[in-house]
Each structure stands twice: as C-alpha cells, then as structure tokens.
Amino acid sequence: MTRTGLSTRLLGLGAATLALAACDAIGSFDPDFRGGAGQFDTSDAVRNAVTAAPQPDARGVVTYPDYQVAIARRGDTVGTIAARLGVSADALASFNAIPQNVALREGEIIALPATLGAPGSGTLDGIGTFDVATIAGSAIDRADGAAAANTTGQPTRHQVAPGETAFSIARLYDVPVASLAEWNGLGTDLALREGQYLLIPVKAPQSNVEVATIAPIETPGTGSTTPTPPSAAAPLPTENATPAPSTRPAPTDLSSEQTAASDTSRLRMPVQGRIVRAYEKGVSEGIGIAAAVGTPVAAADDGTVAAITRDTDQVPILVLRHEGSLLTVYAGVQNITVEKGDRVVRGQKIAEVRDASPSFLHFEVREGFDSVDPIPYLN
C-alpha cells in the first residue's frame, strides 16, 4: 500500500470512529445500520467514484487527444525527463514553472508544451509555442466559477493559480482530494506550486444507483392514528404580507468606464453591453458582457484565428492571436463565421452570442499564458 493510500485509509477510519462516537453519545447508535431514515447509505461514494489513474508508455509519457504529460520516475528531475525525451530542458522547465534540477516525486505530472513525436523520433514539435487549445479549454472552466464534470475520458489539465490548494481544486471539479493526489503524485502535505499542471481525475461512468430501503423496527406508539386538531377544520387566514425589498446589489455597470473613442484603445469591445461579471484572477479569468442572443461578436483587434474548440458541454470557444503575443478568448458563442488560420480585422464579425439563460459573452485577454484584466485594454 502506498503512503498516500495508507494516509487516506487512516483518515477515513478516524472519521468513521468520530461518527460512531457521536451517535453513541446521543444514545441513537444503530449497530446494524437499519434505522430507517438514518440508514447507512454508500450511494454518494458510488456517484463520486473516479477511474483508475492513467498508465504511461515505455518513455513515461501518457498521450491524450489534445495533449501529453510525462510521469516522473524515482530520482527524476525536469532535466532528466527532457534528456530521456530528447527535448529542450529550458522549455520544459519554463512550461511547468519549476527549475530543471529540482527533484520530482515519483508519479508527479510534467506537462509537455507540444506534441511529442512517435517513440524513438526524439522530437517535440513546436516546443515553446502557445498551447492555445489548452488555453481555450480552460477559458470556460472558470467562466462560471465552477468546472463542469468531465466524463469524456480525457482528463482536464488544470494549471494551479495563486492561492489555490489541492482541496479547493478538488471541490472545484467535485472529485476526491485523495484521487487528485494519487493521479498527480502529490506529497502527503498536498503542497502545490503556482503554475503547476494537474490532471483532474475522470469520473467513472455512472449507472442508476438504487438504495435498498429497510423498514424501520416498530417501537411502542407507532402506527396509531393522530387525532385531527380542531384548528384544522377551518382554513388558514390569508396573508397579504409584502415581501421585503431585495438587498442584493445590482451588477456593476463597468461599460461606462470605456472611453468614447474606442478606436484609440488597444482592444475594442467585442459586444456592447453591461459587464455583469468582473475579472478576478483564479476565479473568473475574463469578464462577462451581457448581450442579447444572436448579437454579433466582433474581433477585438487584427489577428489570426489560433484555435476553435469546445468545452465539455460542446459550447464553442474561439481564440484569436494578436500582435505582441496577445491572445483574446471568446466563449458563450455560436454560429462562428471564421476558421482556424483565418486572418481577421478589428471589428470583423466572428460569431454570435449563444442562446443561454442569461445570455452573455465571456471575454478573456491573455499575455502569453497569463490571463489579465481586459478592462485596461478596452479603455
């Protein structure tokens, strides 16, 4: 048994012991777990089960349709992995935000920034270039402040943002933290580093979970008819209470902060509307702009279509590359009018706002891999 597995088992045993002690303290402990409404139920554990961790090939590489990762062996560093794969150690270290000579834990995930050639080719095509498909895929993951469950078989690749922990990431994707640790070779302290890539465990296929119901043991007094209270013979009085006014603040309209001469700004607004969600690093990597269904979405600046992909709900995501290593990401769209590799000009229609409730455009600006607040670019 691994150290992580042992720690998880001990934690589970301790939690069970505390639960039994609490039941005993109030005199309601049911030794055979047949206490009717309080009966023992493992259905939640079944629904939260994940598949087994992926196994690497002979090179220590796991290949998925959209990306690859290397699994560290005992005694590995980024430098030794790069040497084994015949790739640039500098690029590999930079992509994973870790020095080349730092000792890695066995099983730790090292993300490859581009596609590795077939075994024996010793090539890594496009090393050091932007992985725009991954950027596009993660763009919508945090647009709503929560990640959609992944049952596609390809794990979501998550880059750790400042302030995130293994527990917060596990909650974000609704997976057990123990599975997150096992899949990524985390230490017993579950420590993470900013910029580190993690594979999010894939939920196991779910079948209909049926919970067996056992009739409770009758106790004295059960089964007798309760007399109808006299007050039940007359209807309750009609209440005309006026509901209290809502104390929820209205969304901040940040669109008024734009300058009138939008042509002089670094980027133009992709749609006109209220900004209903502000940028917050690590929570919402872009802004949400309210717009009616079918509103044309315009290119924020001249550029090239770098990627067109879809999130786990098959909603399109569009990424444009601009001068100066700048990327813009457009999510919550439909009817895309461009294709990958097309040149676009500032203000050109590239898509329409998707039919959703509410309908809005999720818009991101990225300087290389890092998301930044779009507002200064739009002013």
Automatic annotation (TrEMBL):
Record keyword Transcription regulation present: no
Biased composition (Polar residues): 253-264
Highest taxon in the source lineage: Bacteria
Signal peptide: 1-21
Domain LysM: 156-200
Keywords tagged on the record: Hydrolase, Signal
Keyword Signal tagged: yes
InterPro entries reported for this sequence: Cell_wall_metabolism_enzyme (IPR050570), Dup_hybrid_motif (IPR011055), LysM (IPR018392), LysM_dom_sf (IPR036779), M23ase_b-sheet_dom (IPR016047)
Gene Ontology MF annotations: metalloendopeptidase activity
Comp. bias (Low complexity): 233-252
Pfam families from the UniProt entry: LysM, Peptidase_M23
Region (Disordered): 217-266
Protein name listed in UniProt: Murein hydrolase activator NlpD
